[in-house]
Specification:
Layout: E1 2-6, H1 7-13, E2 14-23, E3 38-40, E4 53-59, E5 71-73, E6 79-88, H2 91-94, E7 103-104
Parallel strand pairs: 4-5
Antiparallel strand pairs: 1-4, 1-7, 2-3, 2-6
Length: about 110
């Protein structure tokens, strides 16, 4: 599981953002049983944490103890995570914006 993307951090860089997973070997979208290929601020069922941050679950298997709306399926092996910023502003335009931290959470 991976905790990432503070909604405040995205807001500093753009009006909206979207996360997408691609297989490292091919750079193609990852086929998955729920046919979800990205998570963004308009994703149905997305649940923010009490502190306003957003915990995205990036893993191959469906989470058991976390919101399904926050799950972005990944392949079993290596993958790349892409963040797209829509209507970038401020630091995203001048190069000073720093991407939100991604942290691995051990089960």
């Amino acid at each position: 599981m991976c905790r990432c993307l503070s909604s405040a951090a995205i807001a500093q860089g753009a009006e909206a953002g979207r996360e997408q997973v691609r297989a490292a070997s091919s750079q193609l979208l990852v086929a998955n049983p729920i046919q979800r290929y990205a998570l963004g601020d308009r994703t149905p069922g997305l649940q923010y944490d009490a502190d306003g941050s957003l915990t995205l679950i990036l893993q191959a298997d469906a989470p058991k103890a976390a919101p399904q709306g926050n799950w972005l399926p990944t392949p079993e092996g290596p993958f790349n995570l892409l963040l797209r910023l829509y209507l970038p502003k401020g630091g995203a335009l001048d190069g000073s914006y720093r991407l939100p931290t991604i942290a691995r959470i051990e089960p």
